[in-house]
Amino acid sequence: MPHRIAFIVNPRAGAGNPPIEPLARLLANEGAAVTTYRTDALRTTADIDQALGRADAAVIGGGDGTVNSMIASILRHAVPLGIIPLGTANDLARTLDIPSDPLEAGRVVLAGRTRRIDVGQANGLHFMNAAGVGLSVAIGERLSQAEKARLGVLAYARHLWRLLGRGEGLRAEIDGDGLRLRGRVVQVTVANGRHYGGGMTVHDGAQIDDATLTVLVVRPQSLLTYARHILAFRSGRFRPDAPVALGRTTRLALRTRPAQSVALDGEIRTTTPVELRVLPQALTVHVP
Fold it and tell me: Among residues 58, 83, 112, which one ends one of the domains?
């Protein structure tokens, strides 16, 4: 069990008003020294590094975007990560089977069991769940914090359905280990983990510690075709006639015409062309 915990909380995650004080008391129950930081007080990388430099574990209370914003510093300081899922999607917590109840998630940290997992990298920036181009970016641009707080993961589904019927996608060129694709797509997802986009499953066999990236390409089709396969996007079990292409790789180059924004764990962080790779077993996390 860690002795000095940097407890970093996003007070605006999810519906807001997270149980900060009860969580801090819980984490201190076993004698650990807990220092609580609000994300709005950690404005720079230097602020985050200073907080983590005083700790032997980082516990992040927030959603996938909050975790993503801290990953580079956590890797630099080589401290284990505990996750309190307070966001809307919480895809990383879902991948790791971390309880959705914040206090139960805190008890996972106290239990002390850890696991080494992979981290994805896109143009030198880290991601835990997935990098996305196309629909995922368009949805992220339209989602407001108030809408996520009010509707939860249904907010993602609402915008997804509205956008699927528009346009013919974008032209993409994808090259990886034994993977080559040219043509029009509506979405490219390069996943490090299993879940993305508020509970979607990239593939039923994907794991976050398998030293590979899973590539899911969605081709332009009619709304009726997408509707026939909607359950497959949730389960990650696609039939041969699904409007998708799947592959696995350790490295990937993605080019689009025209250039597109790239979302990492739901936040727009870079643009195409983008070079992606997996960093095997790079991070230690607390798990049930």
Answer: 112
Strand partners, 35: 6
Say if residues 181 and 211 touch (Cβ distance below 8 Å).
Answer: no
58 three-state secondary structure? strand
Residue 98 sits in the same domain as residue 237: no
CA distance linking residue 214 with residue 255, whole number of Å: 17
The model's pLDDT over 95-154, given as tens digits with 9 standing for 90+, comes to 999 999 999 999 999 998 999 999 999 999 999 999 999 887 766 555 545 555 454 454
Domain that holds residue 227: 125-279
Tell whether 52 is covered by a domain: yes
Q: Say how many Å lie between the first and final Cα of the chain, rounded.
A: 14
What's the pTM?
0.89
Class of residue 241 by CB neighbours under 10 A (exposed 0-12, middle 13-18, buried 19+): exposed
Whether 143 and 218 share a structural domain: yes
Q: Examine the domain organization and report whether 104 and 162 are in the same domain.
A: no
Distance of CA 145 to the CA centre of its chain: 17
Q: Read off the pLDDT of residues 143-165 as tens digits, 9 standing for 90 and up.
A: 545 555 454 454 555 545 555 65
Strands 213-218, 261-264: parallel, antiparallel or unpaired by DSSP? unpaired
Pairing type for strands 187-191 and 267-271 reads unpaired
